[in-house]
Amino acid sequence: MTSFLVRRILGALMILLIISAVTFYLFYAVPRDPARAFCGKICPPETLQLVRHNLGMDEPLFVQYWHWLVGIFAGRELVQFGDCPAPCLGYSFATQEPVFGAIVDRFPVTLSLTFGASIVILAFGIITGMIAAWKVGQPLDKIASASSVIGASLQIYFVGPLLAFYLVDTMQLIPRPSYVPVTEDPVGWFTHLLLPWVVLSIIFTANYTRMTRSQMVEQLAEDYVRTARAKGMSNRAVFFRFAWRGAMIPIVTIFGVDLATLLGGAIITEQTFTLHGIGELAVRAVQNNDLPMLLGVTIVGAAMIVILNIVVDVLYAFIDPRVRLT
Question: Does the global pTM surpass 0.85?
Fold first, then answer.
C-alpha cells in the first residue's frame, strides 16, 4: 500500500507540473499583453516598460515560470507587490489581491455547492438506478430510463433561470440563491443553496441513474451471482450483498472525477446564480487576461482531480475484494 501511494503521489506531482507549465506557456501564446492591461488605457511606453519589469515579465519565459514554481514552496519577493509568503501563487493583475487568498475566500462557496449537489446526485441517481435494475423491463424501469434521458438533455443555463423564475420570483417558495456561511446560519445556508443544488444535480443524477442501472444489470448476469442463486440465496440478498459492490467500482471512479471537477469550480452554475466561487474566479481571470489567477485556479482544479483519483484507487480494494493494490 505504501509503495502504491508513493508512486501515485509522485505521478500526481508530475502531472501538476506539466499542467502548470502548459498553462503558463499557452497564456503567453495569446496575442495580448498583460502588462498593458495592468497599466491601464493611457500608458506611455516608458511606464509600460516599468510595469513589465516590476511584474517580472521582461525575463525569459522559463525564468518566470521557475520563479512562480519556487514561490509555491518558499515564497518570493515581488517588486510590484512586496513579500509574498508561501504558498505564493502571485498577485492578481486585475485586482492586486493575493491569488491564494482569493481562492481560499471563495472555496467555501464552491465546497458548499459541491457538497449539497453530491448528496442529491448519489441519493437520487444511485437509488433510482438500482430500482430500475431491480424492476428491469417493467414500467418502473422504463419510466426511470426515460426520465434519465430527459434529465441528461437539459442544460443548467436553461433550467436554472426557469426554476428561479417560478420558484423564487413567481411562487416565492424559496429565497433567491446566494451564499450564507453555514457557521452563521445553517438554515439560511441550506435554503439559499437548495435551488443551485437541484439544478446542478439534474444532469449528473440522470447520468448516474443510467450508469447504475447498466452496471447492476451487468453484474446480475455474472457467474458468481448465478452461483449464489444456485446455492439458494434469495434475489434480494444477491442484489444487495453481491451485485451492488461490483457495480459501484465504475460509479466510484466517475464520481471521483465529477467531484474533483465540481470542487475545481462549477462554472456554469456559479455564473447562472451569481455565486462567487472558484468557477466565477476562473471566468473573470480569463476575461481579464489575469495569468496568476488563471494559473492558481487551474492548479487547484488539477490538484483536486489527481488527489481524488488516488482516493478512488484506494477505495477499490474496500469495495471489491477482487481488486488488490499492487
Answer: no
